[in-house]
Amino acid sequence: MTDPLIQEFVTSDNYRLQGRVWSPSAEPPNGTLVVLHGIQSHSGWYEYSCRKLCDDGYQICFFDRRGSGLNSSERGHASHWQRLVNDVIQLLTKRRSQQKHSNHKGPLILQAMSWGAKLAVVVAALRPDLIDGLALLYPGIKSFVKPTAFQTIQLKLAKQIGINRKQIEIPLKEPALFTGEESYQEFIKNDPLALHQVTVSFLLANWELDRLVDQAAERIKCPVLFMLSGQDQIVDNAATEAYFERFPTRQKKMVQYPNARHTLEFEPNRDQIVTDYVDWLTDLISSQKIS
C-alpha cells in the first residue's frame, strides 16, 4: 500500500495547513479526491481507505482543518464560517489549476465525512465550477447533536462581550458513538491529535453553516453519493435522507450499511465499503466519457 506524504498548504491568511497526500504510482491518476474530515477526527483516522483508493489509481489530498489534527496553531478555532469555506475553496482552486496545466483529466471529487459534509455542501453550492462530484459519508448535515436556541443566544452574547476564543467541550466524549469495535474505541480514546474542544467563534461558524446547508440543497447539480451508517447515533438519518431527496441532480446515489455505527472507516466490512465507493467513482468517470 502507498504511504502518504505530509504536505503544507498556505491559505490566504497565511495559515499553514498540514495534510496527508497519497499519489498513485501510475500517471495520470484516475481522479483526484479532496477530502474533509469530521469535527473531532483528522486525516490520520482514514489512512486505510485512502491507501486503498490510491492503490486503485486515485490521488487523495487530505488536509486537516485549521486548528485540527496536524495543525496545532489556534487549536479548535475559526474566526467565521467564511474562513473555513475559503480554505476548502482555495484547496480546490489549486487542484483544479493543476489539472488544467497537466495531463490529469480525471474528475475532481469533493469528499467529506461527518461534520465535514457541512463545509462540502456549502462549497459545492457556492463554487460548482470547482468540483465534478460530491461524496458524503455519514454526513453530519442533519445531526442529533446541535445547540438549542438558548445555547445559540448564549454563544452570540459570548462573542459580543469578547470571549469568542473561549474553549467549549465538543459533546462527543464517548468513542462508542463512532464505532462498535473496541480496538478502534481505544484508538479514538488515546488519539493525541483528536479535537475535544472548539471556540465560541467556531461554534457560531457551525451555526451559520447549518443555516447555509439548508439553503444549499437545490443548488447541487453535480453527481452525488451518500453513504449512511444504519446505527448512527450522531447523524439523523431520516432527516438526511429527506435532504438527499432535495438535490435536483439525476446522478445521485445513496448506499446504507445497516449495522454500521458511524465512522465507516472502523467497520469490519470496510473493504466492501471502499469497493462500493470505487464503483461509484468508476461509474462517474464512465458517464463523463459518454457525455
From TrEMBL:
The lineage of its organism: Bacteria, Pseudomonadati, Planctomycetota, Planctomycetia, Planctomycetales. Keywords: Hydrolase. Coiled coil: none annotated. The gene is ytpA. InterPro entries: AB_hydrolase_fold, Hydrolase_4, MAG_DAG_Lipase. Pfam families: Hydrolase_4. One of its GO terms (molecular function) is hydrolase activity. PANTHER family: PHOSPHOLIPASE-RELATED. Residues 28-269 form the Serine aminopeptidase S33 domain. This is Phospholipase YtpA. The keyword Hydrolase applies. Its EC number is 3.1.1.-. It is an enzyme of class 3 (hydrolase).
